[in-house]
Design goal:
CATH superfamily: Small protein B
Order of helices and strands: EHEHEEEEEHEEH
Shape: globular
Number of domains: 1
CATH architecture: Beta Barrel
CATH class: Mainly Beta
Number of strands: 9
Structural class: alpha+beta
Distance between the termini: 35 Å
Radius of gyration: 19 Å
Number of helices: 4
Strand order of the largest sheet: 1-8-9-2-7-5-4
Length: 160
């Protein structure tokens, strides 16, 4: 499972919590992303959203669509469209593996997080299956039980 930027040399830019709520993540892939210079500067300021983003494969290449990168305020004419499609950099073997799984019913390719690894921008994408409403309810119930247990445990430790 993802460690959300806790490893050394990584800085989290954007996280897609909604993806973990809406999907079961079966497999994750790390890939680079093709960006313009002003987009990288904007990402360094943390101005990125992948909440509504999704990935697709066209002509044997993976693209991320709907990823919003705010225009760099000092970028003037060099700024690109904030919602343009951006190419993800992956090996052909990984793309073919993903393509095979996407042809199965119910699978989607969803961006999970965007982060800096050393000085490079990386995107973690997940091969996901959609959750049903009862799965979402069960997850919420488990999360609430865990929260209550931690609260009780913390209260018991304070009394002793």
């Amino acid at each position: 499972m993802a460690n959300y930027g806790k490893e050394e040399g990584t800085k989290l830019i954007a996280n897609n919590k909604k993806a973990y709520h809406d999907y079961f993540v079966d497999e994750t892939f790390e890939c680079g992303i093709e960006l313009a210079g002003t987009e990288v500067k904007s990402l360094r300021l943390g101005q990125c959203s992948i909440k509504e983003a999704y990935c697709g494969i066209r002509n044997g290449e993976v693209y991320i669509q709907g990823m919003h990168v705010n225009p760099y305020e000092k970028g003037n004419i060099f700024n690109k469209d904030p919602l343009r499609d951006r190419k993800l950099l992956m090996h052909k073997s990984e793309i073919n593996k993903i393509l095979g799984r996407l042809k199965e019913q119910g699978y989607a390719l969803v961006p999970l997080r965007v982060y800096f690894r050393k000085s490079l921008v990386k995107v973690e994408i997940g091969l996901c299956r959609g959750k049903k409403l009862y799965d979402k309810r069960a997850d919420l119930a488990k999360k609430q039980q865990k929260r209550e247990l931690e609260r009780d445990f913390k209260g018991a430790n304070l009394r002793v």
